Amino acid sequence: MRYFLYRLNPPRPNFISDITPAETNLMQAHGLYWHGLMAKGMVLAFGPVADPKGVYGIAVVQLEEGADTQPLADNDPVIKANAGFSFEIHPMPQLLHPSIGYGDVDSGMHNQSNGNDCFVISRSNSQHQFGIIFAVNAACACV
User: Fold this and answer.
1) CA 109, CA 18: separation in Å to the nearest integer?
2) Which of residues 55, 73, 92 is at a domain's end?
3) What is the spatial distance between Cα 27 and Cα 50, in angstroms, rounded to a whole number?
4) In a domain, 65, yes or no
5) CA 94 to CA 2: how far, in whole Å?
6) 54 vs 14, 17, 20, CA distance in Å?
7) Could you tell me if 120 and 87 lie in one domain?
8) Does the reported pTM lie above 0.85?
9) Which residues are bridge partners to 122 per DSSP?
10) DSSP type of residue 94
């Protein structure tokens, strides 16, 4: 499986405050569409993001290796209606979720030689090793 973040950009910055009745209907169809994809196991989560710079929507999607990401966006009712919405689709090299599992989690000190305190949580499988480095203080120069 591969994972993707879909970001739905509204047609204008003030979309939420001046949504029209037609756009309200489109958003209801949009929600039903993504609910249907969730019921099929393709969508792990979706919903609006209340960013102070402007509201947008996101979905976290899982697709089979090699599957085309664009049709999910193209078939969304808000895109089909040509109402000014747009999608950005970004690959997620790793996704941690209770239903997927966490792999092996290890912690240990990193960069101790210069006195900075950091610790690493890593996940590995037979193909990849991933690490997240958390700084305990701002001087940590973790790589």
Assistant:
1) 51
2) 92
3) 16
4) yes
5) 8
6) 7, 11, 17
7) no
8) no
9) 106, 131
10) -
